[in-house]
Amino acid sequence: MGDAALAPKEHLLITFMRDLAPDQLEEIKTKFPGLEVSSVTLKRGEDIPSELARKASYIVTFTNLPKPEDAENIKFIHFLSAGLDHAIQHPIFKETAIPLTSSSGVHAPPIAEWTVMNWLVHTRKYAYMYEGQKKHEWRDSNSGYFQGVHDQVGKRVGILGYGSIGRQIGRVSHALGMKVYAYTASPRPTPSSRHDNGFIVPNTGDKEGTIPVSWHHGTDKASIREFLALGLDHLVISLPLTPQTTHLLGAEEFALLAASQGSKGAKPYLTNISRGKVLDQEALIGALKSGDLSGAALDVTDPEPLPAGHPLWDAPNVQISPHVSSSGVEYFPRSLDIVKENVGRIKRGEELLNVYKRGKGY
After folding, report:
1. Between 20 and 30 A from 269 (CA), which of 29, 259, 359, 362?
2. Which percentage of the chain shows pLDDT scores above 70?
3. Distance of alpha carbon 81 from alpha carbon 232, whole angstroms
4. DSSP secondary structure string, 154-214?
């Protein structure tokens, strides 16, 4: 009897905006021993060449996608980002039913650390102390440092979008002694409905959904405003950008958030790790100038990059970073962990992790 022909290996294609180092590629090949692995460097948004796309079984990408006519053999496309809003106009979204998966969950640990870092920089007056250090000044409590400094114990944090990132922020906030209030688009009335079924970095997050002291939901303005009226000390925005969430928060919402605090002390602090367009940015500047907000930490702006002359740079008590809160050496390996899990699920006929819902936009 002759030897049976060996079936060709499935092909994992990774597209990137820069060359992968040889050791990175070897590490990836080790992670996927049953697959043929290759990478290609493409410009941002450039379509994947037909000769490469047609050989691929799985694609890992930030912004590069195949033409629909080249995608017949593709079993899923994995994005190296949590949000897919930057690519939804591509025909692959509208003209195919290929499963699209995100890296949701990968970002949770670094973004939670970035969030709390900014809170503490603000409330512990780090900038004031650092300026004193550079000037060789001993700025103790007699220098004005003491005024307004406080810890986070007992503070109320409302997390608008209690997904993987929101849950890790909730976990860290809870460890600081804070009260966590969760907000989701759809109702989560039962313990099972509050479970996180997406990718979770081990020892992080809130898988069972037991950390919040209360859950809130809705997609209408009235529900959002009811949430903002809870007397929050912190509002964290962790929402996907969709037509419904664009400019979701503006002058009226900021005023309500501030008014709900009454005369208890410092006005609420806003953190946005979502997308810049979720906020009315001019209204945000106004709320910072008026004191309705005590400050804001922004990892996202509208537009990006933020022009050098934009007034947001000089708004009072604002801390801006250039969309880097999720960065870290762990990012890429963790994202590939999702790919590895989903390749296994394809072979076992199981539901994939982190599937993008075309009808919902996230």
Report:
1. 362
2. 97
3. 29
4. T-EEEEES-SHHHHHHHHHHHHTT-EEEEEESS---STGGG---S---TT-S-TT--S-SE
Q: Dihedral sign, CA of 13, 17, 22, 28? A: negative
The owner of tokens 């969430």 is: 245
pLDDT digits (tens, 9 = 90+) for 75-86: 999 999 988 988
What is the pLDDT confidence band of residue 155, given thresholds at 50, 70 and 90? very high
Based on its alpha-carbon atoms, the radius of gyration of the chain, rounded to whole angstroms, reads: 23
According to DSSP, residue 292 is labeled S
* Mean pLDDT for the chain overall: 94
The DSSP bridge partners found for residue 75 are: none
pLDDT of 124 strictly over 70 = yes
Burial 238-274 (b: 16+ CB within 10 A, else e): bbbbbeebeebbbeebbbbbbebbeeeebbbbbbbbb
Find out whether 288 and 315 touch, Cβ atoms under 8 Å.
Answer: yes
Q: What is the mean pLDDT of residues 163-170?
A: 97
Residue labelled with tokens 């979770």: 200
- Does residue 265 register a pLDDT over 80? no
Residue 7: pLDDT over 60: no
Task: Please tell me the distance from the alpha carbon of residue 259 to that of residue 216, in angstroms, as a whole number.
Answer: 20
In DSSP notation, 216-269 reads EE-SSHHHHHHHHTT--SEEEE-----TTTTT-B-HHHHHHHHHTTTTSSSPPE
pLDDT at 5 exceeding the cut of 80: no
Q: Do residues 79 and 199 make contact, with C-beta atoms less than 8 angstroms apart?
A: no
In contact, 274 and 237? CB cutoff 8 Å: yes
